[in-house]
Specification:
two-stranded antiparallel sheet; 4 strands; binds zinc ion; 84 residues; alpha+beta
């Protein structure tokens, strides 16, 4: 049987399995929100074990931006030191 129609609402077992596999291991991890460079919309949530660069498109303004997670982490450390 051919599947001609493409539906976003129905997830196949394979897709569900993939989602579960990717989410496994995130339990207990803290995460932080990255705001869009352009409009400051809360665009991405990253887990504490994330590193390197990511590229994401903002849902609000539609701008695509690159985020350096290492740089972000340094800023967070500085803030903590400053406050504590
Ligand atoms: Zn934006």
């Amino acid at each position: 049987m051919r599947m001609d129609s493409h539906s976003k609402m129905r997830l196949s077992d394979k897709t569900l399995e993939k989602i579960r596999r990717h989410e496994a291991g995130t339990e207990g991890l803290s995460y932080r929100t990255i705001t869009c460079h352009h409009c400051e919309h809360k665009t991405i949530q990253i887990f504490e074990d994330s590193s390197g660069h990511i590229r994401a498109k903002c849902k609000k303004c539609g701008e695509e931006s690159t985020y350096n997670l290492a740089l972000r982490r340094m800023i967070v450390k500085w803030n903590r030191r400053g406050l504590g």
